[in-house]
Amino acid sequence: MQNIEACKDSLGGLDSDNGFNPVTGAQTGGCPTNRSKKPGVISQGVELEATMSPIKQVTFTAGYTYADTHFRKNLIGSSTTGEPLDRALFLLPGSQLSNAPKNVVTTSFAWTPDLGSNGMSGLIYVDSRLSSDYNTGSDLAPEKKQDGFAVVNARVGLRGKDQAWALEFWAQNVFNKNYIQVAFNTPFQGAGSSANVAAYGGTGNALYSAFLAEPRTYGLTLRSRF
């Protein structure tokens, strides 16, 4: 287990694919402890939000987030000992963190029209989340990459006077989009990704498993105030 930090001095690429001595088998790329007090991650970005209500009972919202959340270069495995970064993590230096898309766009539309003169109202609501691609693995192996995708949710319903009751039909992931939440190396099923082969040679025959996000779900909700 390592707590990723960064060395204040250049490691000359020894924290990445050059950080292993093929003759002695030793891991290279250590850092003197008095030079290893630099954070290993940089996170910066911008967020924009907007809300528009062109007519009564209609609301649009939109949001955009750009988040550059990446590992520094010259990484080490510990600021206490200055130990080299584990060889399995050679893809981390300078790369975007796992499960951290750079671009996310969110939108929503809500319409709550009056129905007659008895205080009842309707509800039509749709929201979406569009995410750019990202890697789902802690080692950033290319096989664990998730391409960009969008998820849409919706809700249609009726509401009584003063919202004393509500009946709503809802659906999550309306278009049944399949996407990976976390990918991981399948235990005892080969070793080495295509990145390992490119850096060190040999054969990459690892198999990968994944936890997928929830498929399309739907249901009916009845609410009441007492």
Protein architecture, described:
This protein has 226 residues and is mainly beta. 3% of the residues lie in helices and 42% in strands. The chain has 1 helix and 14 strands; from the N terminus they run ββββββββββββαββ. The protein has one helix spanning 194-200; strands spanning 5-6, 38-39, 41-52, 58-71, 75-76, 103-111, 121-131, 134-135, 145-146, 149-159, 165-172, 180-185, 208-212, 217-224. The strands form 4 sheets. A 7-stranded antiparallel sheet has the order 3-4-6-7-10-11-14, with no helix packed on it. The protein has a 3-stranded antiparallel sheet with strand order 2-1-5, with no helix packed on it. A two-stranded antiparallel ribbon has the order 8-9. It is elongated, with a radius of gyration of 25 Å. The model has no long low-confidence stretch (mean pLDDT 89).
List its salient traits:
seven-stranded antiparallel sheet, 3% helix, three-stranded antiparallel sheet, mainly beta, 226 residues
